[in-house]
Design brief:
Blueprint (H helix, E strand, L loop, with lengths): L3 E2 L4 E3 L4 H4 L9 H8 L7 H4 L14 H16 L3 E3 L5 E8 L2 E11 H6 L2 E2 L6 H14 L1 E2 L3 E5 L3 H11 L5 E4 L5 E7 L2 H11 L5 E5 L1 H16 L12 E8 L5 E2 L1 E5 L7 H8 L3 E6 L12 E6 L2 E7 L14 H14 L10 E5 L3 H10 L5 E5 L4 H9 L10 E2 L10 E2 L3
Parallel strand pairs: 6-11, 8-12
Antiparallel strand pairs: 1-5, 2-3, 4-5, 4-10, 5-12, 7-21, 8-11, 9-10, 13-20, 14-18, 14-19, 15-17, 16-17, 16-19
Helix pairs in contact: 4-6, 6-9, 7-8
Length: 416
């Protein structure tokens, strides 16, 4: 079963929703966030990237940054920009990006089920990022960034979502990037009970995006449990803020790679090495370069696009991790030919989300910032679920989910 509960959400007054809503903390650097929030004192970026409200040279991990975020959250509350619902609710959140629609249920998921593996993960976390999220939650006494969960679709839950969407939404706006965000409150007691009962039949949930926020929620739960002699397991800190989407509505884009140098070799030597493991052919231009299926890659080198197809004998389709395209590229090209050992730590490699397009790969190489770029076919949601079910871990930067959840539309307070 999945213990997915309603909660008293802290959220903007309808007239402020579009001003408050902001991109998640990890898709912008501090300067980009500063520029985006300029002139908008209600922007949630002042809460999820609070360094932008302090001096430009501030260390984003300084204690004053976490205090600043907590102060800004309380200011929005005291100014009446955001307020808490009177009763525990579920919320329905729809996003429309071009032809893609996805509708999720906002709920408080169980930290204990995350710890027990009933909410399955597929990535390792980095200690410094996990520590950062722990401090954000602890100082703000709130979870302000939702974790993106998925599950194998349920007709029963789909029907409940459709019923909720028949009502008038509380928010409905298009963000600057053109993505439409629509939000409903589910407060009626029978509807709340029906959603909770339907999720109790779901065997497992999966973390799609938000591994550091999930891990941080567990650490904060442990801290507060250990400091609470009356701990019961029902306190708000035992649950974390999530938006839960069915697997058939998930959209994963490619997550591409750029490498700063050719590891001391020239382009011809690299091409010769690649041909030992891949079929290689030049591609006319960028419009036909994008990989169209699994195990096909594109490479941009010295103003030329190439199509790479890994040799079939090198693919172990029985191994859910090694058969991933990100694994094949790493094992058979990046490591042996470009000496990229651990992509989590090697500063010679960088990662570019597919939302930026292949043009960004060209730009990074043509500018001289990088020497070579690789475009991949997107990891599928079926591959992600198979790896999580096997208790395995994906290579870093395997999935880029779009559209991203806006922060600020809903907050889970830890002292409801």
């Amino acid at each position: 079963m999945s213990d997915v509960r309603p909660f008293r959400g802290l959220r903007p007054a309808t007239k402020f929703a579009e001003q408050v809503a902001a991109p998640p903390y990890d898709v912008l650097n501090s300067q980009e966030a500063r520029e985006l929030a300029a002139g908008n004192p209600y922007s949630f970026l002042y809460i999820n990237k609070p360094e932008i409200g302090l001096a430009a040279d501030i260390d984003p991990y300084d204690e004053s940054v976490y205090k600043q975020g907590a102060d800004q959250l309380r200011k929005l509350m005291s100014d009446g920009v955001i307020g808490q619902d009177d009763t525990p609710c579920y919320y329905v959140y729809r996003q429309i990006m071009g032809d893609h629609h996805q509708v999720g249920i906002v709920a408080a998921a169980s930290v204990q089920e995350y710890e027990d593996g009933l909410i399955k993960k597929h990535e390792f976390t980095r200690p410094v990022k996990e520590d950062d999220r722990v401090k954000h939650i602890d100082y703000q006494n709130a979870q302000v960034g939702p974790v993106f969960l998925t599950y194998r679709r349920s007709e029963k839950i789909n029907a409940l979502v459709d019923t909720a969407m028949a009502a008038e939404p509380v928010y409905n706006f298009a963000a600057a990037d053109g993505i439409q965000h629509t939000f409903w409150v589910v407060a009626e007691a029978d509807s709340v009970a029906n959603i909770q009962a339907a999720f109790s039949e779901i065997e497992a949930l999966y973390v799609a995006d938000g591994h550091h926020r999930s891990a941080a929620a567990l650490r904060v739960r442990n801290m507060r449990r250990d400091g609470n002699p009356q701990h019961s397991g029902d306190e708000p800190y035992n649950f974390f803020l999530t938006v839960i989407f069915p697997d058939d509505q998930m959209q994963i884009l490619d997550y591409n790679r750029v490498v700063k140098d050719l590891n001391g070799q020239d382009a011809n030597a690299l091409l010769a090495a690649i041909e030992s493991k891949f079929s290689v052919s030049p591609v006319g231009d960028i419009t036909s370069a994008k990989p169209a299926e699994r195990h096909h890659f594109a490479m941009y080198l010295e103003k030329q696009w190439y199509s790479l197809t890994i040799k079939e004998a090198l693919v172990d389709e029985n191994d859910p991790v090694r058969r991933l395209d990100v694994s094949l590229l790493q094992e058979h090209l990046l490591a042996p030919m470009l000496a990229i050992g651990d992509p989590r730590k090697d500063n010679r490699i960088d990662f570019v989300g597919g939302i930026r397009g292949l043009q960004e790969l060209e730009r990074r190489v043509d500018s001289g910032d990088c020497a070579v770029a690789f475009a991949l076919y997107p990891t599928s949601i079926a591959e992600l679920l198979a790896i999580a079910d096997a208790g395995e871990v994906m290579p870093p930067k395997s999935t880029w989910f779009e559209p991203k959840l806006r922060s600020g539309l809903i907050v889970h307070l830890l002292d409801e």
